Amino acid sequence: MTSNQNKIIFLIQCEDRKGILSATSTWFYNRSYNILHCQQHTDNIEGRYFMRIELDMQDLKTTRKELEDDFAEFARSYNLSWECHYSDYNARVAIMVSKTSHCLYDLIARKNEGDLKCEISLIISNHPDLEVIANQFRIPFYYLPVTSETKS
């Protein structure tokens, strides 16, 4: 397994009670999903249970919609709130910068090396200094100066 392995990630929360971990992991097992990672936490003050499950996307034998519809039926029976995310989805992001370049270079390098799964759509700055870097990587740059009129 590599760190670039595509994953299905479920974020689950509900009222804390016995059997949630067992029922959920059994549900995935019965559908032949390999659980790569599972973390859970109980908030004893609020009585809430939180779980994050990573599945191997290679085990997906249906459409994503079918998986989510099927899980929604299971979740209703346990009154679970949940979200499902897929690691092969590249979010479009904007990077907001100021004058120093090291963080911008780091984010661009991580994206280019595949460690940061996203599409850098634009760079926004309150200083024009880093426009040259945006141009170097062919990323649109927007300069939004802070003036006494725009500062609040």
Number of domains: 2
Q: Name the overall outline.
A: elongated
Mean pLDDT: 93
**What is the oligomeric state here?**
single chain
Biggest sheet features: 4 strands, antiparallel
Assign the CATH superfamily of the largest domain: ACT domain
Please, could you describe this protein's structure?
The strands form two sheets. The chain has a four-stranded antiparallel sheet with strand order 2-3-1-4, with helices on one face. The chain has a three-stranded parallel sheet with strand order 5-6-7. 28% of the residues lie in helices and 34% in strands. The chain has two domains: 80 residues, ACT domain (Alpha-Beta Plaits, 2-Layer Sandwich); 53 residues. The longest helix is centred in the middle third of the chain and has 15 residues. It is of the alpha/beta class and 152 residues long.
Which helices and strands, and how do they pair?
Layout: E1 7-15, H1 20-30, E2 35-43, E3 48-56, H2 64-78, E4 81-86, E5 91-97, H3 102-112, E6 118-125, H4 131-136, E7 141-143
Parallel strand pairs: 5-6, 6-7
Antiparallel strand pairs: 1-3, 1-4, 2-3
What's a concise summary of this model?
The protein has 152 residues and is of the alpha/beta class.
Descriptors for this entry?
2 domains, elongated, Alpha-Beta Plaits, 4 helices, four-stranded antiparallel sheet
